[in-house]
Amino acid sequence: MASLPWPCSLVFYLVATATVSSALSLPIPSLRFQLGPWRYAHATFYGDESASETMGGACGYGNLFSTGYGTATAALSSTLFKDGFACGTCYQIRCRGSPHCYGSFPIITVTGTNLCPPNWAQPSDNGGWCNPPRRHFDLSKPAFMQIAYWRAGIVPVMYRRVPCVRKGGIRFLLQGNEYWLLAFVMNVGGEGDVGSMWVKGSNTDWMRMSRNWGASFQAFSRLVGQSLSFKITSYTTRKTIIATDVAPSTWYLGMTYEADVNFA
Questions:
Q1: Where are the alpha helices (DSSP H) in 58-182?
Q2: pLDDT in tens, 98-155
Q3: Contact, 226 vs 200, CB < 8 A?
């Protein structure tokens, strides 16, 4: 029988040590949202100074004043909107390369709350500003007026994704009926977006909810009379947090309930 140049125990030690060292050297994905790179896009505005036309929208946030988003909002072109998964995401925007930009080139931060749909009747460089693959922000007029002279109509901009800074916890507006729960998810911090969601009644196990539209998720189950907990996973980072007993057993449809947790 051939003899080993080293004792078996030493060989095992060296192999095990190398394996552990290799594993420790592998990059570990970060669950913390990182600033995105600056990119080029264009911006227009819709509505007037009251921003009344920006209320509601494709994300389902309703009255943007009462839900905390105010006038610092944007309708996103479909390339940015990502079929609704970009609802709640935050962006820094600054005007660049136009005589209509304000001289100090101020930076604003806005939240994506709506979809700017394609206009296939117009060319992408003349009216069809939100046609794919264009990256475009249709701002509220008050937001647009912070970066450029409003009569410009459209200006080139630079933008980047940034963490959303929110006060308080994630909020859930409950709609539906006795056998169908529809939850609109708002005030999401950090990444700002929601990729998937689960609900748990005080008498049930966790149930995966399906996305209805925008920032709303649904469960077809009778949850009346049970306190509700939610588990939310970010679309961007896949980070998951659990909001326990957000709504008491006496919850009502049409009411908004706030969790004591949020993404950082």
A1: 78-81, 141-144
A2: 999 998 899 999 999 999 999 999 999 899 999 999 999 999 999 999 999 999 999 9
A3: no
| Residues near 8 by beta carbon (within 8 Å), at least 6 away in sequence | none
pLDDT tens, position by position, 20-72: 333 333 333 456 777 889 999 999 999 999 999 899 899 999 999 999 999 99
**3-state secondary structure (DSSP) of residue 84:** helix
> Within 13 Å and on the Cβ side, how many CA atoms surround 40?
3
E-state strands within the chain: 39-46, 73-77, 90-95, 107-116, 136-140, 155-162, 171-177, 180-186, 196-201, 207-213, 216-219, 228-233, 240-247, 256-258
Task: Tell whether omega for the bond before 133 is within 30 degrees of 0, i.e. cis.
Answer: yes
Dist. CA 104–CA 101, nearest whole Å? 8
Distance in angstroms (rounded) separating the CA atoms of residues 116 and 5: 71
